[in-house]
Automatic annotation (TrEMBL):
Transmembrane segments: none annotated. Keywords: Glycosyltransferase, Transferase. CDD domains: DPM_DPG-synthase_like (cd04179). It is an enzyme of class 2 (transferase). It comes from the Bacteria. This is Undecaprenyl-phosphate mannosyltransferase. One of its GO terms (molecular function) is undecaprenyl-phosphate mannosyltransferase activity. The keyword Transcription does not apply. Coiled coil: none annotated. It comes from Neorhodopirellula pilleata.
């Protein structure tokens, strides 16, 4: 259901027949005052429309975004969450905006300097042949790649392997936030998890909808080694247990709704 390619394999409503479909670039942001201007400048070199979801920032990011939006209203829009609701909630706002404004799809990337905006066009190009294009930090070794925190890599590998076994994917990186989604794919999602477990719901619902997935390589860049996942989830074992619970619950939900294909249903049940 999912596939991978090497590095060298080869946006909105009211468009005329001669105009290409427009894609949105969306950035979930929480307290990124030191990065946001530079990231926006770089993204604007590769996209003519950016949505920033400011998820309750309190470090001056909100004021910077207000200034950028006011100065570039035709290029930058901002959704502001009054409080910090979480990564999943920010992406849900971006997905709703994409559909409401008639874009052909959306590219999501983080605003902390860990994703390289010059790769945006390749994600959009790859989406011509896949419903979801997902970045992978483990498909290819790049010169200068960082060493990931061991506990994060361990959890990523464990959850990625479980997703592959239970859902029939062949992913190498279940948690990379650099992705491209066709609008048709977004219509299949009913995301409820507000936090960092949101990708688990997403993969389950993608499998249930029979969406095609393509992974493409991206460099392994870790600038925020002290990221907080929220309270007790900063403890690796607690976070892994929670992720497993979310995955189990998401699978049970689509099964109860009769949306889990038979070829996957047998794999998805633990003995």
């Amino acid at each position: 259901m999912s596939r991978s390619v090497s590095e060298h394999s080869s946006a909105g409503p009211h468009l005329s027949a001669s105009q290409p479909p427009r894609w949105l670039v969306a950035l979930p942001v929480y307290n990124e005052v030191n990065y946001v201007d530079g990231v926006l400048d770089e993204v604007l070199r590769h996209s003519d429309r950016i949505l920033v979801v400011d998820d309750g920032s309190s470090d001056g990011t909100t004021e910077k975004l207000r200034s950028r939006r006011d100065g570039q209203p035709d290029q930058i829009d901002v959704i502001h969450h009054e409080r910090n609701r979480g990564y999943g909630a920010a992406l849900r706002s971006a997905f709703e905006y994409t559909l409401h404004h008639g874009y052909a799809g959306v590219v999501t990337l983080d605003c902390d300097g860990q994703h390289q905006p010059h790769r945006i066009p390749r994600f959009i190009e790859a989406a011509k042949t896949a419903d979801i294009v997902s970045g992978s930090r483990y498909l290819k070794k790049y010169e200068g790649d960082d060493e990931p925190p061991q506990e994060r890599m361990f959890i990523n590998r464990r959850i990625t392997a479980d997703i592959n076994e239970r859902l029939g994917f062949s992913l190498t990186d279940a948690f990379c936030g650099f992705k491209a989604y066709r609008a048709e794919a977004l219509q299949a999602f009913k995301i409820t998890d507000d936090g960092y477990a949101m990708p688990l719901e997403l993969w389950v619902q993608a499998a249930a909808a029979g969406l095609s997935v393509l992974e493409i390589p991206v460099p392994l860049i870790y600038l925020d080694l002290d990221r907080s996942f929220g309270g007790s989830l900063d403890h690796a074992e607690t976070r892994l247990k929670y992720y497993n619970q979310v995955l189990d619950s998401a699978i049970e939900t689509v099964r109860s709704e009769g949306r889990l294909p038979e070829r996957i249903a047998a794999k998805s049940s633990h003995a």
